[in-house]
Structures are given as C-alpha cells and as structure tokens.
C-alpha cells in the first residue's frame, strides 16, 4: 500500500528511481555571510525544501527575552532549555511561481523567496530579527539543552513540508527531491552526511555593510535602536566569536565542505556556483 503510494508520487514527480534519497545541501558560515539568501535561492532554483535553523534559535531567544529571563545567567539554563523543548515553531517559505517549467534548469527564478516564522502560530518574522534578539541569540544557542531541542525539531520538520509557491499551491516537489538547510552546525552535526556542504565566508566589514542595509530596508529595528556600521560589525564579530568558541557544536567548517568567499560575488554568482555543483554531483552519482 505504502509502496504503491510512493510509486504514484514518484511517477507524478518524474523520478527515474523509486525511494530516491533526497539530496541534502548544508550551508554554514558566520553571521551575514549570505547563508539564508543563498540557501533560499538555491532551494527555489532546484525545487528543494528550505530550512533556516537560525530562525529556531531566534524564536527561542525572543521568547526568553519576552519573559525577561537573563540568558547569560547559568542558573537559567534549565528554564531556557524547557522553553526550547516546548516551543512550537513553524516555518513557511514562499517561493516564486514556477508555472509551466519542465526541466530543472528552467526553474531559474530571480525573485527572492521569503520565509515566515511562526511561534505558537503567531507570526514573529520581524520580531526575531531585531538587534535586541541578535545580541542575545548566541548565548541562548550555546546552551546544550537548547541545541538538543532544536536538533530534534529541525530533523523532524524534514518530514513535513510547508513550502508554497506564490500561486498558493503546495509545492509537491520540494520535500522529496532535496533539502537545503543553513546554520552553524549543519555540515558537522545536523546533516553530517549531506551530499554537498558549503561554508560561506565574507570580509566582516562587507558583512556589516550588508546587514546594516538589510536592517534599514526591513524596518525591523525600532528608531530608538541607533545603528551605525561599526556597531553592527562589532556585534557580528562578537557573535561569531561566541559561536566559534562554545562547547557544544561550535561554528566550524566541516572537513569535506567547499568554502566560498562571497565578499566580491553577486548573489546570482554564489547561487549559481552551488546549483552547478549540485548538478555535477547528482550527475556523477547517477
Ligand atoms: N553577494 C552579495 N552581495 C550583496 N549582498 C549580499 C550578497 N550575499 C548576501 N547579501 C545580502 O547580505 C545580507 C545578509 O545575508 P543573509 O543571507 O541574511 O546572511 P546570513 O544568513 O549568513 O546571516 C542580506 O541582506 C543579503 O541580501
Ligand atoms: N545551526 C545554527 C543556526 C544558528 N545558530 C545560532 O543562532 C544565531 C542566529 O543565527 P542566524 O542564522 O539567524 O543569524 P544571522 O547569521 O542571519 O545573523 C547564530 O549567531 C548562532 O548563535 C546556531 O547556533 N546554530
């Protein structure tokens, strides 16, 4: 029965082989190196599912700060881990419509997908991107119980699919053909057997300029939070240092990861390099 259903699905999706393992792309790197932008566009071009793991740590941090709990006080670790375990977090990525396309290469779509983040079914997409949350998220993400809880959540949502195209139809391809996940420990801990691991880096000044522009454009930061480029750069560097030096699953490049410096690249180029690498590896594995 299950096998028949699987064959039907395979036929609809035009797969050559049944029970094909989804192709996993792991993208890691320091803050504002371009991970989520690149990951979303790679997922869109390939029709893969996209999971932003940083959003999970941000949601938990938002909840912790809303309850006025100090994440830097070790006495609060158990309480924060419990919050992480109980939190119900859901992501919904809105991809651009891909009507009438047949071949993978034809799925080249240039509008940027957006991810909405729901915490207990409340849309917190902009609240989790404020500087206040950014300043505390690395302390929360360093807690072992929090990492365990997020690991379980991100692994289990691989089985669900909340992706949508802008025409509102569910994306029937995305969950089975492949998955793009971005974060800090994807290639090392979450998906250690990923088919392609990418470690994105960029000069910290360039990253700060990009992040500042993004904060201004999104209006996610309240007017009273005065931003300047030096402050943004300091915060990125401080967060990277905390992420690199924590005891549990620190930020590091997996041994078998491909490093890509985005400092002098356009978004299109960095996406293209990864998409071409996916095609190359799929071809050589066929
Ligand atoms: N090559 C690039 N050129 C210019 N801006 C970029 C490039 N790559 C990413 N960006 C921008 O930099 C900002 C940070 O990128 P983002 O994908 O959010 O990084 P991360 O997920 O690593 O924190 C975003 O506003 C994004 O649009
Ligand atoms: N897989 C992950 C993803 C994020 N994180 C933590 O969550 C924080 C926010 O992640 P993010 O990807 O939203 O951050 P940005 O790089 O977008 O600013 C990081 O600074 C890490 O502390 C992590 O520890 N492990």
Automatic annotation (TrEMBL):
Enzyme class, broadest EC rank? transferase
- Give the EC number(s) listed in the UniProt record: 2.7.4.25
Q: Which UniProt keywords apply?
A: ATP-binding, Kinase, Nucleotide-binding, Transferase
**Residue ranges occupied by any Cytidylate kinase domain in the UniProt entry:** 25-278
Annotated GO biological process? nucleobase-containing compound metabolic process
Q: What one GO molecular function would you report for this record?
A: ATP binding
Q: What is this protein's name?
A: (d)CMP kinase
Q: Which organism is it from?
A: Dissophora globulifera
């Amino acid at each position: 029965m299950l096998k028949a259903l699987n064959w039907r699905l395979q036929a609809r999706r035009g797969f050559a082989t049944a029970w094909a393992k989804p192709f996993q792309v792991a993208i890691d790197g320091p803050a504002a190196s371009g991970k989520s932008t690149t990951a979303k566009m790679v997922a869109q071009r390939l029709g893969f599912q996209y999971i932003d793991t940083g959003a999970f740590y941000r949601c938990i941090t938002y909840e912790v700060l809303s309850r006025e709990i100090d994440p830097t006080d070790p006495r609060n670790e158990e309480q924060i881990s419990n919050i992480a375990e109980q939190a119900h977090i859901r992501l919904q990525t809105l991809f651009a419509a891909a009507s009438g396309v047949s071949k993978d290469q034809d799925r080249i779509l240039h509008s940027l997908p957006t991810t909405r983040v729901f915490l207990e079914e409340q849309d917190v997409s902009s609240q989790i991107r404020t500087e206040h949350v950014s300043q505390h998220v690395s302390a929360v993400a360093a807690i072992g119980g929090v990492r365990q809880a997020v690991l379980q959540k991100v692994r289990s949502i691989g089985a669900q699919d909340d992706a949508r195209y802008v025409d509102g139809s569910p994306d029937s391809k995305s969950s089975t053909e492949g998955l793009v996940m971005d974060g800090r420990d994807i290639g090392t801990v979450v998906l250690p057997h990923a088919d392609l691991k990418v470690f994105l880096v960029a000069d910290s000044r360039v990253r700060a300029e990009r992040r500042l522009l993004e904060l201004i454009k999104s209006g996610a930061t309240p007017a009273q939070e005065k931003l300047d480029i030096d402050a943004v750069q300091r915060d990125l560097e401080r967060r990277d240092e905390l992420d690199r030096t924590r005891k549990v699953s620190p930020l590091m490049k997996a041994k078998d990861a491909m490093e890509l410096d985005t400092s002098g690249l356009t978004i299109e180029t960095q996406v293209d390099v990864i998409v071409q690498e996916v095609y190359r590896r799929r071809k050589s594995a066929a």
